[in-house]
Amino acid sequence: MKLHPAIVPLCQDLADAGGRAYIVGGWVRDLHLGLPSKDVDFEVFGLDQDKILAVLQRHGRAHAVGKSFGVLKLRIGKEELDVALPFDGQAPNPSLTLEQAVQRRDLRCNALYYDPLSGETLDPTGGLADLQSKRLRAVSEQSLVQDPLRALRAVRFACTKQMELAPELLEQIRVTSLGELASERVLGELRKILLSVDPARGLTLLHDSGLGAQVFPRVDGLKAAERMSQVQPHLALLAEPSHQEVLLWGTWLLGLERPAQALARWGLHKIGGAPLKHWLPSLKQAQAPLSDTDLRRLADTLPVLLPLVLHHALLGEDPLPGLLRAQDLGVAEGPLPVLLGGAELGALGLQPGPAMGQILKALRESQWAGQVSTPQQAQAFADQWLQRHP
User: Fold this and answer.
1) pTM (2 d.p.)
2) Which residue segments constitute the domains of the chain, with CATH numbers given?
3) d(Cα 140, Cα 130) in Å, to the nearest integer?
4) How many Cβ atoms from other residues are within 10 Å of residue 297's Cβ?
């Protein structure tokens, strides 16, 4: 991977000032995996924050974003770099050695240091061997204790990098509690697991590690993983990424009796604007056979392609015929049109109130049943309803 041309001169200036700058973490890991990576994070040894900031400001726009943690940002053109001091667990500490600082990192494959001046990768914990063997190990027994979110991150890396959790790491994860973590941090990792190339494997790992039971205690993780393996080959039928993600969540949480409570716990109310709390009960209905009336009714609640894909995938069927049926019913792109509203009923002498609501509800149910499909039929339905309910 090519580095921004300003990075080597920047590292040289930091070295001339008495420091040593290394690229750390994900960029180095992906370099050795042959994968592209956009995020370039630095750790600078031997200089305090003010001296580092003074050097950075000669190369672009730089400022401190986490003074108590020793984190700075540098923007060079369109590129933004994270620059951090070594952290000892209490405060930034420029006097730490690399061997001491590495103990604060999470996984050995993320504890790699690349020197842009020499082109050398420093590997104090055996991370390169782990990458070669496709194995994930923690840097130390304290790695997950320092930040329990790392347990979820390990599962996420297993999915996104197609690696295996080492037995000792799996045992560390099993005794890790997520209870004190902020919900948005947990949700961020769960979403990345679901959106990985193999979400079914992600759910299996969450089940095996016990993390899934912590997040959604009433969900059978193995059954959810089995459902996911049936659904994920058909996700491409949904053009909207947000709809794909809703279907992933729905597939995972299908067995929940009270999904709203589980979603509220983690702040998972909407996905890309989609009201997940209201859509999940409708997705649950998709386990049963879906009649034409069911499809028309569901289309008033959510994009009907979601329950169709879910229903046919769980039966081991090709969803495409169902999607064509939705097109024939006129609900593939959205709900049935409103054929008659309050203004038209008002012209018939009906005042706003419960009676108007009743006739509009009855009319909609007739549309779902396929009994009314044109404005003329809707008008006739209203006339007949008013005659029966003077």
Assistant:
1) 0.87
2) 1-129 (3.30.460.10), 134-215 (1.10.110.30), 220-336 (no CATH), 342-388 (no CATH)
3) 14
4) 22
CA distance 40 to 200: 30
In this prediction, residue 4 carries a pLDDT of 84
Residue type, 307: P
The predicted structure's pLDDT at residue 86: 94
Angle separating helix axes 183-194 and 149-160, nearest 10 degrees: 10
Residues 44, 74 contacting (CB under 8 angstroms): no
Tokens of 353: 């109130």
Number of neighbours of residue 322 by Cβ within 10 angstroms: 21
Four-point Cα dihedral 242, 248, 252, 257, nearest 10: 40
CA angle 114, 120, 126 (to 5 degrees): 70
Which positions of the chain have pLDDT values less than 50? none
pLDDT attached to residue 131: 96
Residue 348: the pLDDT is: 67
Residue 164, token pair as written in the block: 């295996």
Per the DSSP assignment, residues forming a β-bridge with 122 are 113
Determine the residue type at 336: L
Provide the 10 A C-beta neighbour count for residue 2.
Answer: 5
- Give the up-direction half-sphere exposure of residue 352: CA atoms within 13 A in the CB hemisphere: 3
Phi and psi, residue 106, nearest 5°: -90, -65
What's the pLDDT score for residue 350? 67
Which tokens is 219 given? Answer: 């969900």
DSSP E strands in the chain: the ranges are: 20-24, 41-45, 61-66, 71-76, 79-84, 113-115, 120-122, 135-136, 164-165, 270-271, 274-275
Burial class (CB in 10 A: 0-12, 13-18, 19+), 86: buried
